[in-house]
Protein 1
Amino acid sequence: MSISWRTDFPGGNGLLLEVDESADRPVLRFAAEPRNCPQALWFHFRVTALAGRAARIVLANPEQTLGGVDWSANRPVARRQPRPWARIGTPQRLQTPGGRVEWAWDLDAGGDAVELAHCFPYQLADLDATLDELGGAFQKTMIGLTLGSRPLPRVFSSLPDAGRPAVMLTARHHAGETPGSWVLDGLLRHVAAEKRLYESITWWAVPIVDLDDAIAGSYGKDPWPHDCNRAYGPPGPRRPEVGAVQRDAERLKGAAKRVFFADIHAPGHGEQANYVPLRGWDPDSPANPIAEEFALAFQAACPEDIRSPTSHVAPSPTAFIYAGMSSRTWAQTVLGAEAISLEISYQGNGTTYYGMDDYHRLGAALAQAISARLLGSGKQ
Ligand SMILES: [Zn+2]
């Protein structure tokens, strides 16, 4: 039976260009699909009928990905069920006759099926599994519909009251940025396990803002028709998901003692650092007065083995410019809350490549840094 390639599942992405089964080790050449975006990045596909053979997987369009052509230090993730997802090695550089660069990862022999993804996938089913595991510590409600008519979930620990601070968390404004989801997943787990944090703060989170693109397998950066994280205005929201987040955050702010807003992202594909931008990426965006202080607190809260070498960056004026207001700028300037955005690497911190548990530990550190800001740093 010849090799089969599938992407028809939530989060699937990757166009198979060719299969060469002439050698003992089949070669599968694919491209990360831009779908509705100017740049590609996310991929997640399933290969079957390997019949125990090793395989070589070749990414054919790295120069179309956000972060550019150099994938030399990137270690995607693979899963051979029932084993869990794990990192594979770094790739080999291939040069095409016309001068383009492609990257090849070699997979060991074993089993009939393998799944490969740019980073650990995270879909609604993963969120639901975590909520089940946490035994009702967090509930889920719908705050509106997406552009594609899907109910947009928000999870919450409690209803707000005027005597207690609150946190509004968002992830996946850019659908393929799954490190943000694993960090948020770790934060929820930590909060559920820490009585003081759970009871002293109201925790709300919209775990997958661009749900349509997450399910469709799109990277979701600057997608058609609008980037969710550039759709906060002005004048009004340009995406229904964003309007739903805005109304929800306003309700939380109106009822809670104060609100801290945190939006979690992932940077270019190969960056090996986590950081808080000191202002938005657009040249005229306002500085964030709390960014550096919070960035240092988060960095210090991270366990040493997974701590980022940098805590914050001042965005370069030569960076890509996407018109429209981001969630953090909106939360800071319109909602009037303390707000940060946080970039979490797809790879690691330059010495350790992150596993799923490491992202969870970063989430616990984020919970600690936010709680210390809202409650003071008193130990239990
Ligand atoms: Zn992003």
Protein 2
Amino acid sequence: MDITTNYLGMKLNSPVIAGSSGLTDSVDKIEALARHGAGAVVLKSIFEEEILFQFEDVLKDAEKDGVDLDQFDYFDFHLKGKKINHYIKLIQAAKQAVDIPVIASINCVSSHEWTAFADRLQDAGADALELNMFFLPSDFQRTSMEQEKAYFKVIDKVLAAVSIPVALKISYYFSSLGPMIQRLSKTGIKGLVLFNRFFSPDFDIDKMTVKPSFVFSSPAELAMSLRWIAIMANKVDCDLAASTGVHDGPALIKQLLAGARSVQTVSSLYRKGPTHIETMLDNLKTWMKTHDYHCLDDFRGQLSQEVTTNPAAYERVQFMRYFEGEKDLT
Ligand SMILES: Cc1cc2nc3c(=O)[nH]c(=O)nc-3n(C[C@H](O)[C@H](O)[C@H](O)COP(=O)(O)O)c2cc1C
């Protein structure tokens, strides 16, 4: 049975990618993920702030954009430089240790000259680059158009700097999500990861304080990316990878049926360890055997909006008809 998939122009042994997180920040962890069937790994992101301040000449640009330089002292500067070198070494060592693609990840919020650093990741041997981009739309001075423009600016700069494939990991906070995903897919990037999941606040009502909410996703969170992978599957010019809420074999199968070329999983691996990838892949193979499928393309996208017999299901957003039979919901 063939469970290989093509993602970002690369052939992966399996469609399960270990997503960017602390699970991919060391060679030992990456080796374990590869051993248990990960098709690729996305390294823990290096953050724009960590890159930006390595280069003195870009400090001036950053200052112009309102970054307060006084808050960074020599020690910050020194530590950041060390962190970047550590990241480069991680890529080099991971590439030596495993045969699967190693995707470097940058968390970025601007198109500052940090983009010149992208080629150092490429030189270190990264097979691809995933840009994790997000601006919380709470800046009341910034229109949605300005917000969107920033994405295209970063993509242009990064694509000019590297020749390895570039993927973009986004959130669903866009005023017109479908058209935005489509436009992004036409920029020359090779993949879109739908969607990132963020650190969110919660309240402690006894201490009357704000605290972090759940760090890990729940399986129910699959719904958002499943809908959008299915809607966009045949409307984009790049690969789609599903992220958030992919916890088990059935969720993996659903995302492939929606049209994903790969899935990324993180919370499930934090909870169950790298061997869980094998379980997911075993589930996939058993299901494929039952349905007499020999490769992923035999069924990929079969429930995408354009292919399914019930495309309206993806447009339905209100619970109207459930009010009639509420007792059936339990
Ligand atoms: C502890 C932790 C650290 C993470 N760090 C990163 C990161 O550095 N870069 C990134 O793009 N996503 C990061 N993520 C988000 C994950 O890559 C993923 O998008 C998110 O957890 C949703 O997938 P899941 O439902 O499989 O957990 C992190 C998630 C967790 C739980």
